[in-house]
Every structure is written in C-alpha cells, then in structure tokens.
Write a structure and sequence with these properties.
The chain is mostly helical. The protein is 80% helix and 0% strand. The protein contains 26 helices and no strands. Helix 17 packs antiparallel against helix 18, helix 18 runs antiparallel to helix 19 and helix 25 packs antiparallel against helix 26. The longest helix has 35 residues.
C-alpha cells in the first residue's frame, strides 16, 4: 500500500509538471507571435507568465530581454541578460546584446568588454565581432576597427556587413579609394542592399567624382526611399555638374516628401542662392524659420542672401538673431562685421571682429579685416600687430596658402607708411606687388602700392 502511494504521488507530480510546462510553452508561443507582430509590450507580458511557471528558463529571459531592448527599456533588458548569464555563463548572444544595451546609451567603453567576452564564447559569432568594430570606430580607434572588421570578413567572407563597416572606417580615415573597394565588394555580395550603394556614392562625392556618385545614390534611393539623404546628395552632385534642372527637381521632391522639415527648405534655399535666385532663396529661408524660428542655419543664410542684395540692415538683423541663439559661432560675428563695415558702422564691425578672434585666435580672415579697418582709422600700430599675427600663422602653412595671403602685406605696408617707417613700408609694398600681380581682385590695391612705392623711392635721400 505504501509503495502504491509513493508511485501515485510521483505520477501526480509528473503530470503536474507536464501540465505546467505545457502552459509555459503556450505563453512562449504566444509571446513569439507578438514579437513577429512587433508588439513587444504584449510579448513581455507572455514571457513573464512563462517565467512565473519556469523561472530557470534562460531562453525565455533572453527573449524577454530582446523585447525590452527593442522597446528601448535598457535597464530591464540588462537585468534579463544578466539572468541568462547566471544560468549560462557563456551565452554569446546574451553577452552581445548586453553590450548593445550599453552601446545604445551610448557608452562604448562599457559595451566593449561584453562584445569581447561574446567573441571568446563563440569566435565565429560575427555580430559580436562587428559590434566590437563599431565601438572602436565610434571611439576613433580606427586601426583596431579595421583589424576587427578584417577578422569578421575572414570568419565569414560572404557577409557584406564586415566590408560595409570596414569601408565606413576607411571613409572616416580619409581613404575613399579603400572605402570604395570595400563598398564594391559589399554590393557584389548583396546587390539588393541599399547601404553600400549609398556609402560608395558618398565616397565618389568626396572625390568630386559626381558623375560616378549619381548612379549609386539613385540606386540607393530606389532600394530604400526612406533614405532621403541619398536624394539630397544627388541634388548637390547635380548642382556641381551644373545639371540645375535635375538638382532642383530633387530639392523640390525633398520638400514634398518632408513639408514640415525646415532643413530641406534651407537646402533648397541654398540651391536657389547658388543659382543666383536670391528672392526664391529668401522665401525658402523664411519658410524654414516659420517652421522653426530658432533655426540658426536659416537665419545665417538669409543674412548672407540679404547682404548679397545690398540689404545690410536686414543682414545685420539676421546675424544678430543667429548670434543670440549661438553666441559662440565666430562666423556669425565675422559676417555681421562685414555687414557693419558696408553699413559704415566701423566701431560695431571692430567689436564683432574682436569677438570672432576671441573665439578663434587663429581666425586669419578676421585678423586681416580687423587690420584693414584699424589701418583705415589711423590706428597703424595695431594694424601692424594684426598683420604680424597673420604671418606667424600663415608662414607655417603650405606655400600655396601663403601665396593666397597677399593682402596683409598691403595693409602692413600702408600702416608702416602711416608710421613713417618708409623702408618697412617699401618692403611690404614690393612683397604685395610680387604676390598680387595679375590678380584682378587686387587691381585697386596694386595701383596704390605702386604709387606709394614710387613716392617712397623718389623721396629717399640719394648718396653722393
């Protein structure tokens, strides 16, 4: 009798466990269906019910963690992945996804050890390898990133992702030819993926091979119409190729696809400005500001357009509003200073050049313009000092750039002349004439420099 009772009890427990497991499986099955429908909140509820029945099921923790991850509930996802690792210490996928939960913060340094550990658990797991490479790329460790993506390509030469991601690193390193080679391999492996066409198009664009860029950007957009940036780059490539009708068609389409996005009105406004259609440009900049009154780019470019139309007061207003929103942008002060100069508000212009130079102490154009205004005001020594600063910066640059900076020699020559340092003035006039001869932009200054140089030489005492 006792033996029968024990058998009965064991039989009852087995039936109970079997029923419970069947219920857990039912919840898991339902949860998986919700995952397929992208209803992760409902999936989490079903996985949780399954875990109440079977709290030692690592796979269910992993699946629920994945749903949390897709819902961007990173803390909950991490808790589930850690629960998996308590049950299975070398679960490569859980380790990888735990790394992803930190990558998304973004906290790349915390993510890296988990991707490395995942690779140790499964050296052939390319997701973890590629994710480690992405962390190295994001943190500027390009050499390590190249090595990791190369390893990924060795593990699975048929996987285009390794080539795509390595190509992106090469692109970041300023090596477009190497990038193009990798993107081309990626296209051969996955000709229906949009991303390699897009990135190769960008690389061609960087090399100013606009005719080569356009077919790739077109293919990318055809494969993924959500990739609006491909359309934008194609429009810009057409601008450079002077295919203006095609360019404007793309800009119009960008606005039609995104009528509430101020950036595309700015882009089209810039295109109109390039095509010498300032009125249409201003209409687009106005629309951008209607959508977002704090859009500095729209204010800045409207200011430039107003300046080109001779509307200096309007330009000053636009630059001033932009400065209120971004007071640390030296270009805003620089351009407002130019508008102040043409509006004959010299002191205001000098104040803005001072601000621009305080923000960027090596701002050559601002130093040159300030020196010019100071020299015109008769503040010759300060003008000389600014020119000296320009030369101290420029002389460390390639000779091609030095030749472009002729104007400071003219300014310093005039300033030395005003200080009655005639030999110094003559030397600078001669240097200016040497650099500026044949450049139409300096015709007026060349006449002045030659006249002043002649005056100095004519009045120089002759030796007996």
């Amino acid at each position: 009798m006792k033996i029968f009772e024990c058998v009965a009890i064991v039989f009852f427990v087995s039936i109970h466990f079997l029923c419970a497991q069947q219920n857990a499986d039912k919840f898991i099955s339902q949860a998986n269906k919700f995952v397929g429908l992208n209803e992760h909140d409902r999936a989490v509820e079903e996985y949780t019910k399954a875990l109440e029945i079977d709290p030692e099921n690592a796979d269910v923790y992993y699946r629920r963690g994945n749903s949390y991850l897709r819902m961007n509930k990173l803390t909950e996802a991490r808790e589930d992945y850690r629960a998996v690792l308590k049950l299975e210490q070398c679960h490569a996928k859980a380790l990888n996804n735990l790394g992803i939960s930190y990558y998304l913060l973004p906290d790349f340094e915390k993510a890296i050890p988990f991707f490395k550990k995942s690779m140790e658990c499964d050296p052939s797991y390319t997701n973890a390898i590629n994710n480690l490479g992405l962390c190295y790329h994001e943190t500027g460790r390009f050499k390590e990133a190249i090595e990791i993506f190369s390893k990924s390509a060795e593990v699975d030469p048929s996987n285009p992702k390794a080539f795509t991601k390595r190509g992106n690193v090469y692109f970041s390193m300023g090596l477009p030819d190497s990038a193009i080679s990798d993107f081309t391999t990626g296209i051969a492996l996955a000709p229906e993926d949009w991303d390699n066409y897009y990135y190769r198009g960008l690389a061609y664009f960087t090399k100013m091979l606009y005719s080569a860029a356009i077919p790739d950007l077109t293919k990318s957009f055809d494969l993924n119409p959500q990739n609006i940036e491909a359309l934008k780059k194609r429009a810009m490539a057409n601008i450079y190729l002077r295919n203006f009708d095609s360019a404007m068609n793309d800009f119009d389409r960008l606005v039609q696809l995104n009528p509430d996005n101020p950036d595309y009105y700015i882009d089209r406004g810039l295109a109109y400005k390039t095509l010498s259609n300032p009125d249409s440009a201003i209409i687009d900049f106005n629309k951008a500001l209607e959508l977002d009154p704090k859009k500095v780019g729209a204010l800045y470019n409207r200011g430039l357009t107003n300046y080109s139309l001779g509307k200096f007061s309007s330009a000053i207003d636009d630059f001033s509003k932009a400065i209120e929103l971004n007071p640390k942008n030296h270009e805003l002060y620089f351009n407002r200073a130019i508008a102040y100069t043409d509006a004959r508000l010299t002191d205001s212009a000098l104040n803005d050049y001072n601000e621009a130079i305080e923000i960027d102490t090596n701002y050559i154009d601002a130093l040159i313009n300030r020196a010019f205004l100071l020299s015109n005001k008769g503040d010759y020594q300060k003008a000389v000092d600014d020119c000296d600063r320009v030369f101290s910066i420029v002389l460390s640059l390639p000779s091609a750039i030095v030749r472009e900076v002729a104007f400071p020699y003219f300014i310093r020559g005039v300033s030395y002349h005003g200080l009655k340092e005639f030999d110094m003035a003559a030397s600078d006039y001669e240097k200016f004439i040497e650099l500026a001869e044949g450049q139409n932009a300096f015709n007026k200054q060349l006449k002045i420099a030659k006249r002043n140089l002649k005056i100095i030489k004519d009045n120089k005492p002759k030796e007996d």
